[in-house]
Design brief:
72% of the residues lie in helices and 1% in strands. The chain contains 16 helices and two strands. Strands 1-2 form a two-stranded antiparallel sheet. Helix 1 packs across helix 12.
């Protein structure tokens, strides 16, 4: 039995929300906590998608003994690979998780490469440089067909090929929700660690942080690498979810500017803000897409422009009237190190201070 339109809407909403949540958590680490305006976010996302496009299909085709030109005969090869995966589920999952690991490693390596200018430039110069990196990735993907099929794209193997077709997307969505939850928990614990305090110090006053012996360059480099690895995993997950990858799909609007908008609406340096901002954005876009036929006779222009105009107006309103976002940044309790004693209650500390003053 196939899913109804409402169930399909909810499944796709949760899937896209989960993917953007991973990307926005990584962007919040960079921009919200470390103050790095990464306008080249599409670079890491696209790299992850290109890894998913280039690696698992070739590996599984080799394991199944399927020959041919992977790019030129991609549709036929993937049909045979998916048929083979029905009886070799374990191999499909093993290659899938190995691909995510490779995507994270390549993403971290790309993050290290982009960190070279990031630790030397500031402000607008840094943003423009990272934006150029992201555009360079797309140009390479379009013109070098061996990566992701160039302008035609490639299909990806389906690790869930053994499931009935109507259960494939719900099962994939459950997996995406679990991975997004893991990314959010990891990001939250990271900013509650001493590294989180260091990132805020670097963002607020880099010279002051360096004056007390903190390695500012190392902190910025580590942040970019971790964030790039997370975004690359999200890019690979999106490619697997939609079943293919094409270079044109990874543009700066969808994978750089939209994530920035979600984070700004929700609130910078705030894990809850990322959750809320991402949900509001994805929900509005999905509702417009779902009801576009009904809206066509209401709005005085083509409904395809409605989400751009509406979300742009929302962003302008937030920046004018609530620049801190819907959920402003607040204090972040630090996680205690293993074996570290819990701090004494505030009343006990005040009493101890009063006794010292009285004794003095």
């Amino acid at each position: 039995m196939s899913l109804g339109p409402e169930a399909t809407f909810l499944v796709d909403l949760l899937a896209i929300y989960s993917i953007y949540l991973i990307i926005n958590t990584s962007l919040n680490l960079e921009f919200g906590y470390a103050g790095i305006p990464n306008f080249g976010k599409v670079l890491a996302v696209g790299v992850g998608a290109f890894v998913a496009a280039a690696v698992p299909g070739r590996v599984l085709a080799g394991m199944a003994g399927i020959g041919g030109d992977y790019i030129g005969d991609n549709i036929a090869i993937m049909a045979q690979v998916n048929a083979w995966l029905v009886d070799n589920t374990g191999a499909g999952f093993a290659v899938f998780f190995a691909t995510l690991a490779v995507a994270a490693a390549v993403g971290a390596a790309v993050g290290l490469a982009t960190a070279y200018p990031a630790i030397r430039l500031r402000g607008d110069y840094l943003a423009i440089t990272l934006l150029a990196f992201g555009e360079g990735m797309r140009v390479i993907g379009i013109n070098y067909a061996e990566i992701a099929g160039g302008t035609l794209g490639v299909q990806l193997p389906d690790p869930l090929a053994w499931l009935p077709q109507d259960l494939r997307f719900p099962a994939a969505t459950v997996g995406l929700v679990i991975m997004a939850a893991a990314a959010v928990i990891y990001g939250d614990r990271l900013v509650r660690s001493p590294l989180g305090r260091l990132l805020r110090a670097v963002r607020d006053n880099e010279l002051a942080a360096a004056s007390v012996g903190k390695d500012v360059m190392r902190a910025r480099t580590k942040t970019i690498m971790v964030a790039a690895a997370m975004a690359a995993v999200a890019g690979a997950l999106y490619a697997f979810y939609v079943g293919g990858a094409i270079s044109f799909a990874y543009d700066r609007l969808n994978w750089t500017f939209w994530p920035f908008m979600m984070v700004l609406i929700g609130g910078l340096a705030n894990s809850r803000g990322v959750l809320v901002g991402t949900l509001l954005f994805v929900l509005v876009r999905k509702l417009i897409t779902f009801y576009k036929d009904s809206l066509q006779g209401i709005v005085p222009f083509d409904v395809v422009w409605l989400d751009y105009l509406l979300l742009g107006a929302v962003l302008i309103a937030v920046l004018l009237y609530r620049p801190q976002g819907l959920l402003p940044e607040g204090p972040t309790p630090t996680i205690r190190a293993p074996g570290e004693a819990a701090p004494a209650p505030l009343s006990a500390r005040l009493a101890a201070i009063a006794r010292r003053l009285a004794g003095g």
